[in-house]
Amino acid sequence: MACSGAAVLIIILCTINPALSENCRKAGDNEITGSQKMQTAIFAAGCFWGVEAAFRQVDGVISTRVGYTGGNVENPAYQDVCTGQTGHAEAVEIKFDPTRVTYDELLAVFWECHDPTTLNRQGPDFGTQYRSVVFYIDNSQKEAAENSMKMMETGNKYNRPIVTEIIEAGPFYEAEQYHQQYLEKQGKSSCRIK
Question: How much is the average pLDDT of 156-160?
Answer without folding.
Answer: 90
